[in-house]
Amino acid sequence: MHGVTELDHLAIAADDVTDLFPRYAGDLAGGWVGMRADGGLSFAQLRFGNGPRLEMLEQSAGGDADGGLWLFVEHRGPGPHHLTFRVTDLPSKVETLGNAGYHPSHVNYDDPEWFEAVLRPDEATGVVVQLAEVHGGTPITPVPEGVAVPPPRVAHAAHLDWIGHAVASLDEGRRFFGDILDGAETSGGVQDDPALGAQWVELEWPANGRIRLFAPTNDASPLAQWLDDGRGRIHHVKVSVEHPEEIADAIDRGDGTWEIPTERNFGVRLFLTAREEMKQEVVSEQQATHIDLHAPDSLLIPGA
Question: Which CATH architecture best describes the domain 159-274?
């Protein structure tokens, strides 16, 4: 292992990132991190109460109409786009991937503050994976003028418990995310999920980053049919939040969880469970640029 690898964020593609604010900043009380344009894309980030961040992407006004993100949304619709991992030594990680039979693309060291490499879905587990060596912290910026961020529905930000990633091969998923990207198995081995017809294993990275890998138990399982012979896809995002039964579009599954289906949430399936109330800090806009992103349960809602 070359240094520490961290699961930095899940990115969601959208026609307009502000379409996602009512759900993630309002219903789930995600804390504001920042918003800016870069390289033909505009993106915003929100932070969950236990540390993980969610990135929302759109094609910038005036951006290339044939750009990759525009084509992604045009062909697949809004939804999960990529996973980003932070690494401490990108050249070493690229070498490790090559030795393991992977072929990273878009390897770029031009920006001294951001080295990156990308693995295409057919190289990884059906999802774009971005690796970044970052020099400098995550920038925290005020809400841009003219952008409306809804107030939080609840007093405390939801926790992102795991990213549910369906894979055709659990062994390949464990090899890629565990052996190569340094995720530690924390669930005590392979577990069963009868409802999905799947087996799963959970991997964890520093700062509460977690991916739960689900693989079909047989070709007739609901998950196998959903994968449709693909290598893998992001199946759901699991969060815990206060009063999930009050969230618009949440369907009670009868087992202590609620589901918001993809068609009601811009391509992202949410599984919700109830979160107990706890003390949490709310900061002003003036303080927001000085918040420690790793401080537990800091609610970064400027002006709240």
Answer: Roll (3.10)
